[in-house]
Design brief:
globular, single chain, 7-stranded mixed β-sheet, alpha/beta, 3 helices
Length: 150
């Protein structure tokens, strides 16, 4: 049996992986499902949402389009929607808009090694940060990670 060297193997693997990479993007305005743990306290969810929306406003201003948010019913989803509105963003949760510019927004909140990892994603930017959460609130434990697209 003939062995395939590492370089051709990498090329073959890349060719098979490219179509899958497109499935993970927003493509054509599709919205990813958002998720957050239901056991995150309301004060911690509010603190994380407030901090992340502040950073989102630096990248995507409130007047740049209607935010399309598909909340998951968790305390974080509710806190994020409230924080977006308090920053002046127009927010649609029913996914119905009439001819206006829209910005799909998805979030993922996960627990890892005693920390909360938060990520907000739009078609043009992705923000990520780690937090230390308590029942009384949350505070950042890492610098903000920003990935620009396009």
């Amino acid at each position: 049996m003939r062995q395939v060297s590492s370089m051709p193997r990498l090329v073959i693997l890349s060719l098979f992986s490219l179509p899958l990479a497109g499935c993970a993007s927003f493509g054509g305005g599709a919205l990813m499902a958002s998720s957050a743990p239901a056991d995150l306290s309301a004060p911690a969810a509010s603190a994380i949402a407030g901090d992340m929306v502040t950073k989102l406003a630096e990248q995507v201003g409130p007047g740049s389009g209607r935010i399309i948010l598909k909340p998951d019913g968790t305390p974080f989803g509710q806190a994020l929607e409230t924080s977006l509105k308090s920053w002046g963003y127009a927010v649609a949760t029913d996914q119905k808009t009439k001819g206006e510019k829209t910005i799909p927004l998805a979030y993922v909140i996960e627990s890892y090694n005693g920390q909360i990892l938060a990520r907000l994603s739009t078609g043009s930017v992705e923000l990520g940060r780690a937090y230390s959460a308590t029942t009384a609130g949350a505070s950042p434990t890492s610098p903000l990670s920003i990935m620009q697209r396009g």
